[in-house]
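Supplementary Methods, section 5.1.

A reviewer requested that the exact input to the structure prediction be made available. We therefore reproduce it here, unchanged from the version used in the analyses.
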Amino acid sequence: MIFRHLKILEYALGSLLRRRYKNLAILVVYSFTIATLASILFLTHALKAESTRLLAGAPEVVVQRIAAGRHALVPLTYAGKIRSIPGVGTVTPRYWGYDYDGLTKANYTLMGVDGPPEIPGSLEGRLPEAAGECAIGPGVAKLRGTRIGGELILVDSRNTGVIFEVTGIFHPVSRLLTNDLILLPRQDLLDFFGLSVDRATDLRVQVYNPNEIDTVAAKIKALLPDTRPITRGEMVRTYDAVFNWRSGMMLSVFGAALIAFCILAWDKATGLSAEERREIGILKATGWDTGDVLELKFWEGLAVSLTAFLLGVTTAYVHVFFFGATVLAPVLKGWSVLFPSFDLIPYIDAYQVFVIAFLTIIPYVASTVIPSWKAAITDPEQAMRS
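The structure derived from this sequence is encoded cell-by-cell as follows.
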C-alpha cells in the first residue's frame, strides 16, 4: 500500500517536471506572495515583541505636562505634589530630548543623568562623570565612526559645536533601546538644549501596588489638570496599536498582489487545460480509478504549495532578520529621518506561520483537486477526445 502511494507521488513529481515552465511561473508568483505576507507579519511581531520586552522595565507612570495640546517641560514643584499621593514612592525628574544631526541626517536621543541610568545591558567603558563626557549607543558609535576615548561633536541650541569625550559604549539586551542614545551629565544636557534648571522633560513615578497604577494616574490628573499621566499598560497598548495599524496599512497596499493570487487560484479551479484532461483520460483508460487521480492531483498541488510556502517563509525570514527588512522597515518603524540601523532579534509566532500556511496551501490544493475530480468522473474516451 505504501509502495503504491510512493509511485503515485513519483508520477506526480514527474508530471510537474514535464510542465516545468508553467509550474515555475506559478511557483515564483506563489512564493513572492507568501514572502511578502510573511515579511510583514514577521517584522510586525518582532517589533511588537521587542517593544513589549523593553517596556516591561518602563516606569509604572510617566507624567508629562501639556500646554496648548503639546508636550511641555514640567516644573520640578510637581514632583512634591505627586509624592503626597498615597501609594506613590519616589518621583524622579527625567531630562532628555531629541537632536537632529545634519551631518549624518539622523535623530539622536540625548539623556541627562546624575547617577547610573536604569538601562538593561552592559556598558563598555564607564558612564560620564565630568562635564564634556558622554556614553553612546552602538548605532551612534558606528554612524559617527568613534570609539571609547574618541570625540563626539554635536551642535547645540545656540548653533555652537560642542565636543564631548566618549567614555563608554552601550551593549544592551536590545539595541532598540540604546542604539541612538547619547548619555550626558545632567548639567551638560541642560546647557546643550538651553533648558531651565527648575524644569524637567517629564517625571518618573513609582507606584508601590501594581493594582493601583490606574488609580494613582487618575489622582495625578485630578490634582494637576495640565498633566498627562501615562501608565506602563498604556505604553504597551499604544505600541501594539501603532504596529498593528502600520502592518494593516502595508497589508492593504499588498492587497493587489493577494487579489492577483486569488485570481490565479480561481482560474486554476475553474477548469483544466485540454492536455491535463487528456492525461486524466489516459490514466483512467489504463486502469487508474477516481481515487488514484485525485491523489495524484493532491500530491501535485501539495508539492507546489509546500515548495512555495517554504521558499516564501525562508525568504521572509532572511529579509527581515538578516537584511533588516530594508523594504518594509521604513514604513513599520515610522522614523521621519534616517535612523541608525539595528538588528531585530528573531521572534517567530507559530500561530502566524500556521495561519499563513492555512490561507495559502489549502486553497491552492483545493483548486487543484476539485477540477480534477470533475475530469476524473468523466468517461475516459470523452476526456481523451476533448
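DSSP finds 14 helices and 13 strands in the chain. These observations are discussed further in the main text.
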